[in-house]
Amino acid sequence: MLSRMTNTQVRLASRPKGFPDESSFEVTTEPVPEPKDGEIVVRNHYLSLDPYMRGRMNERRSYAKPVGIGEVMVGGTAGEVIASKNPSFAVGDRVVGAYGWQEYGVSNGRDVRKVDGKVPLSAYLGVVGMPGVTAYVGLYDIGEPKAGETVVVSAAAGAVGSVVGQLAKLRGCRAVGIAGGKTKCDYVVRELGFDACIDYRAPDFADQLRAATPNGVDVDFENVGGPVMDVVISLLNTFARVPLCGLIAHYNDAEPRGLSSVESLLWKRVKLQGFIISDRMDRWPQALDDLATWVAEGKIRWRETVADGITSAPRAFLGMLRGENLGKQIVKLV
Question: What is the pLDDT of residue 255?
């Protein structure tokens, strides 16, 4: 009986002011419910941890409603159907959903996607999942890179940025990453094949980035914001494009902040477009198909940072916000 099994969950305990800590979360347990007609029960094998989750901990207005105090933290999951009263799913099906920070999930299956196993299950939360599709749509649809152009991507060693640079190379572009520390920069260049990667912590960061982009910057795939973005904007060419994917430098700010170099966006005639990947569900099938093919062919490489057990999620999440992860941050639940 499923009801004899225990579901361990991580819930939002309080809204953090500034950078969160582990006291912002609480661990709870409850029985695993039996599925009702039309429902499935999924044993989550992996949990995805992503920067957007920090915004969901705030109460201020955003593109999605905040997590309520006492609610299970939101998040993508990948796992296996262990019970089904839904004819579209069979026990043993491998699925990707959004069951959040918990070991089991129950739903009617409408927002659950079966996966074919061409790549490891965890990859459907990263390179062949939401981060990969974010990179694909943001770069190709908004950035519109052309062969010979220079693409700069911040947070280049992360789940999204690491894919962006490799997609740029597939289009014949010069790919320049920005990351924190020598280890990450070496990984971006030596393993992912970027042309260069600049450590934003270096005292001469601006000069190094300028030297790495001698023909200026045509596309800035922006994940960070803050002073890093200001430096990149100063190097943009006329008619450059800026897919605005994330602003992790600002997620812990008490109040929203603007750009310090916004004037140049006008006279350089820059296209800057913020985007949320859930708005572009029409592009997911093609993106996922291309990404899975390129991963299988070895044209796109990927790496994960793995934490063990659901109770490790808060600590791993905070480490990700501090930039401690290399590649995609996940939690292994089984």
Answer: 59
**What pLDDT does residue 248 have?**
76
Eight-state DSSP code of residue 241: E
pLDDT at 4: 85
Element (H, E) at 156: none
pLDDT of residue 252: 61
Helices (H), the chain: 52-56, 130-137, 161-170, 182-190, 205-212, 226-234, 262-267, 284-296, 313-321
For 72, phi then psi, to 5°, come to -65, 135
Neighbours of 12 (CB within 10 A): 23
Nearest to 92 by CA among 25, 45, 26: 45
For the CA atoms of 239, 174, 330, 81, the dihedral, rounded to the nearest 10 degrees, stands at: 80
CATH no., domain 130-278: 3.40.50.720
Looking at CATH, the fold of the domain delimited by 2-126+303-332 is given as Quinone Oxidoreductase; Chain A, domain 1 (3.90.180)
Whole-angstrom distance, CA of residue 4 vs CA of residue 106 = 15
The whole-number pLDDT of residue 259 equals: 66
| 188: CB partners within 8 A, 6+ apart | 156, 157, 162, 165, 177, 179, 194, 197
Q: Which residues contact 20 (CB under 8 A, 6 or more apart)?
A: 54, 57, 252, 318, 321
Tell if the pTM clears 0.90, that is, is over it: yes
pLDDT of residue 65: 87
- Radius of gyration of the chain, Cα coordinates, nearest whole angstrom: 20
Which one, of 332, 276, 322, lies nearest residue 21 by Cα? 322
Residue boundaries of the structural domains of the chain: 2-126+303-332, 130-278
pLDDT of residue 249: 64
Give pLDDT < 50 ranges for the chain: none
